[in-house]
Amino acid sequence: MAGPEPVLAAVAAGLWARGAAGGEVAAARPGALEEEIVSEKAAEESHRQDSANLLVFILLLTLTILTIWLFKHRRARFLHETGLAMIYGVLVGVVLRYGIHVPSDVNNVTLSCQVQTSPATLLVNVSGKYYEYTLKGEISAQELNNVQDNEMLRKVTFDPEVFFNILLPPIIFYAGYSLKRRHFFRNLGSILAYAFLGTAISCLVIGSVVYGCVALMKVTGQLGGDFYFTDCLLFGAIVSATDPVTVLAIFHELQVDVELYALLFGESVLNDAVAIVLSSSIVAYQPAGDNSHTFDVTAMFKSIGIFLGIFSGSFAMGAATGVVTFTKLREFPLLETGLFFLMSWSTFLLAEACGFTGVVAVLFCGITQAHYTYNNLSTESQHRTKQLFELLNFLAENFIFSYMGLALFTFQNHVFNPTFVVGAFLAIFLGRAANIYPLSFLLNLGRRNKIGTNLQHMMMFAGLRGAMAFALAIRDTATYARQMMFSTTLLIVFFTVWVFGGGTTAMLSCLNIRVGVDADQENVVIPHCCIPPLDSPTLPCSSFFLNPLCSYLKPLLTHSGPPLTTTLPGCCGPIARCLTSPQAYENQEQLKDDDSDLILNDGDISLTYGDSTVNTDSVTSSGTSRRFVGNSSEDALDRELAFGDHELVIRGTRLVLPMDDSEPPSNVLDNARHGPA
Amino acid sequence: MAGPEPVLAAVAAGLWARGAAGGEVAAARPGALEEEIVSEKAAEESHRQDSANLLVFILLLTLTILTIWLFKHRRARFLHETGLAMIYGVLVGVVLRYGIHVPSDVNNVTLSCQVQTSPATLLVNVSGKYYEYTLKGEISAQELNNVQDNEMLRKVTFDPEVFFNILLPPIIFYAGYSLKRRHFFRNLGSILAYAFLGTAISCLVIGSVVYGCVALMKVTGQLGGDFYFTDCLLFGAIVSATDPVTVLAIFHELQVDVELYALLFGESVLNDAVAIVLSSSIVAYQPAGDNSHTFDVTAMFKSIGIFLGIFSGSFAMGAATGVVTFTKLREFPLLETGLFFLMSWSTFLLAEACGFTGVVAVLFCGITQAHYTYNNLSTESQHRTKQLFELLNFLAENFIFSYMGLALFTFQNHVFNPTFVVGAFLAIFLGRAANIYPLSFLLNLGRRNKIGTNLQHMMMFAGLRGAMAFALAIRDTATYARQMMFSTTLLIVFFTVWVFGGGTTAMLSCLNIRVGVDADQENVVIPHCCIPPLDSPTLPCSSFFLNPLCSYLKPLLTHSGPPLTTTLPGCCGPIARCLTSPQAYENQEQLKDDDSDLILNDGDISLTYGDSTVNTDSVTSSGTSRRFVGNSSEDALDRELAFGDHELVIRGTRLVLPMDDSEPPSNVLDNARHGPA
């Protein structure tokens, strides 16, 4: 095709510029001195501006932290820290958009040349010196006209990959690392159902509703560009990723019903993973030939194959890394922590390098590490890793949310279409409903302790959208459709976080959901028992073939007893000796294990996997008294669970806001907050 | 000037490319589908390669950590972890350079257009879509020829600013944060003398020696480009930055003489700051007119003014931020830690935004925060911050050193000139000697406890070059002179770290420097005493005007007693009450203060500030018995110090390598390692 006349225009200086300009100054070419000095000045100026821009974000975070502290101090729950961060972001965005006017800098040049393609790197020869340019991304045409004016705005706009490669991984990893594993595995079946089936359902529902809305817009002529069904499905996948942060923070503070907590947390963590892979496999949906965006069976099956491939690949990779990271560096906590951190990161990179989804890999890496590696860490490293990832998660989260607020005004190509927005809100409502209620009905057929209607309503209500939806939406805003998606997603996030997030406490009380449940004594002392969580009652089959596997696997992978020398037949004594860590012998007698889901009683629950139902009463009638040595509160909790519904209602009627002792000492908070505590 | 014919060549795809290519796929332009798919594939491919490259570094670090563990486990001291990291870096560098050959990718295009200047950002119009290109830096002409071949090498080459803006700050901050403040302030005078005078001297000496060497090369015609005296001075400033890491790690392990430790640590920390500012003010040396690089009095004074301005500005900024960061978020360690971290970072950014040196600001911010803010943190936050910055420092350090090893082979424009290298080694030797011996002689005139000749030799020997020299050298490698400097600096770092670092233990024993001194009981309980370190005996003048200031300042800034209500006159009671934190009342009776330099005794030392000498015997003869309540080991240490030289020799003759108990439990290690413990 014939290359049209291109335009080269110099815009704001980037961070790189400084190094290059420094090079210019150093370049001793006689006569060109003053010009060098000029560009040096310009480069330094731009570097300062970059620092100032970053400083804006840092101060934004600082402000958020201070206000969070104020809120926590005053026990204000009507607005969560993330909502707060967004508000500050919006304010700063307004200031940047309308308050500051940066004069377009002097050395703007407009050049033209023949360019057929967009290479990722350009080498430009300027009077004998070569400069390297890297492709930053596409700029929409309408943005080009006022490109001189909004330097400032474009400078504070991050490139989308930052969110996916830097900010999202710690959040997701932390979610996996701090999964409340006992209740998670107890409800694994339901959680998987919500996460996979539910997300697929809501994606389809939202997609079709939005498509209808788009068709309507096309009829009324409101549509300013192409919007295909694949785009609608993509939108469905994007906004199907629910965000646990806001609601779960409040749940944790109020110590809400553990079952509900486990269901919501597990679902929202896993459906993030599902949503990512779903969206990328929708993007990969490319029918053969030039008739794009039409239905094609082979292409669809290809997409499904891609979904399965990427998901399983990422899962396997994450799980594998989590398992192999078993450290023997117990005497050097610093090295241990460093290794732990690096392994988690390399999981992400490895998955990306192999073409899988790093975020998903990191999620399962976190779950596995919390499961196996954590047991090997020295006590100090356990604290260190927890605190490190907690901090990273905290900072990344608040940064993303405040950036969301900022993006509402600083993002250049917003496309707000009232019809589409209304349709989208309707769609996510219907999608969530189609996810929760039918699945809950089906699951309740299998569950002995039903998911009560009030819990269902709460789950319906708690379907907030957050960081993941934003990151998925901003990842690509090149076309009209994507821009409209992004703007709408932004509005959805704002609305859900502010309204639903703010209304959580009220909703809890009016739904009679009991609070004040202390379910976080994780350190169960179980004599002579090292069945790994794989063998949790949620996998009834496991006891047949997983049990022996695990009872060998765990002593091999962790320092927990009993040593293989006792479990393996005598013939393989030497191997067992060299494979068993010295700690295993000490741990033989009494294993302080964090995986409370080892407990096989809880007579009141029967367990569903898919749809199959198993009643564990027979197993558990014995041994309740024996197993709970020195763990009265755990015991109390289970008795309470067994007590049934009227008790639940009674407790539910009064919403105890723990005013006097609502701030336990930090370490207790830690134990409560983190799964592996 | 007339713009010559430029060349635009497409090289490897960058990380940004993916987003743009994603945009392409989403862009629904009929007909261009297959082309989009192609570029999408290419972008994904490049993204994978980027992840793989980063993965190489992560695995490098992992490998280093594992080997470090092995070394620590085997108590091997002949090679420090940093030296190890370099070795691995070299190996990987060799593999990347000679092992892997990446085929130059297919879609290379060569285009030409009229370019007069090198804007920081290019907008390229490709068939209706605009792509943004950011300036990455300059590429030397000789590199351009084989640009297709060494994609790989150029991809693993970081841009220099990364070191200055990302990797260096945590290292420097940690150094300041973990200054052993008691001994630091006790030797403040000597340390300042070494850091400022010494660095200036060594810069001048090295500069002139190297200049002579360069002149020789010019005569013999070995010089391939311009090399002015300012370049020589810059080189002097660059390689005058000594690196404490290697030696001090071993010192700490062997618990070497505390005075020596304090002198070396203080000097190497401060002279980093001096070297940075010195180099930037040398770069800023630009005589008027076009006769560059000639001597010009006004320009020189301008440089000196710049030095003083930048240094004092950075110092003030860092100290100010350190002071203002006093948190009352004690009940929320996470928020506290986050705030602490953000404030430290914003110090760096603020300094950069104001045109000062962020690294220097961060250094003094660390010192001040360890001094004031640290006392306000809750116990958990104290642990958290220490561990966080310890980890960041550890990772950044090992990354830089392994990158050094890598750069030896992957860096494109090495200029190794034997004459220059030999001259440089001679120069740094002479420069170090001219720094240590004369200054020690002068200082010994003032000091009562002389800096023994063996200590002087040790300081001479311990003048290693490390991360800072490397970062300064790689910051700008555009010209022939800079490239030669960089290559030589690299060699110097390798040599000093491997040879001097490895020989430390042997040197200690053959210099009869005593080891096994336990000087890390920092928690001195001092009843009724809250004089801040500013008022340490190293500042004799301070007792006149600083003392009252501090005794008001510290209760105001920290939670330490006595409350202002007791110290201020009755008239300002209300103000005092609202300014005094509740903790101050509790701390009134007995203040657990980490600043051991509060102690005014140690009869055996008199203190020098600049050259003035003050004998503190009179002050300290009283109260030794009273002040050291419940701190016997501290007492023991000081008696030992008082014991004098023969005792020192006796202990020095046998180098006790603590084999049996050389690995104290981690928390003790922490207490020992960190200044504020």
TrEMBL record, chains A, B:
It comes from Strigops habroptila (Kakapo). GO terms for molecular function: potassium:proton antiporter activity; sodium:proton antiporter activity. GO terms for biological process: brain-derived neurotrophic factor receptor signaling pathway; dendritic spine development; regulation of intracellular pH; regulation of neurotrophin TRK receptor signaling pathway; regulation of postsynaptic membrane neurotransmitter receptor levels; sodium ion import across plasma membrane; synapse organization. Keywords: Antiport, Cell membrane, Endosome, Ion transport, Membrane, Sodium, Sodium transport, Transmembrane, Transmembrane helix, Transport. The chain crosses the membrane at residues 51-71, 83-100, 162-179, 191-217, 306-327, 339-367, 388-409, 421-443, 455-474, 480-501. It is a multi-pass membrane protein. Its main location: membrane. It holds the Pfam family Na_H_Exchanger. This is Sodium/hydrogen exchanger. The keyword Plastid does not apply. The keyword Kinase does not apply. One of its GO terms (cellular component) is dendrite. Residues 658-677 are annotated as: Disordered. Belongs to the monovalent cation:proton antiporter 1 (CPA1) transporter (TC 2.A.36) family. It is found in: Cell membrane; Recycling endosome membrane. Residues 64-509 form the Cation/H+ exchanger transmembrane domain. It comes from the Eukaryota.
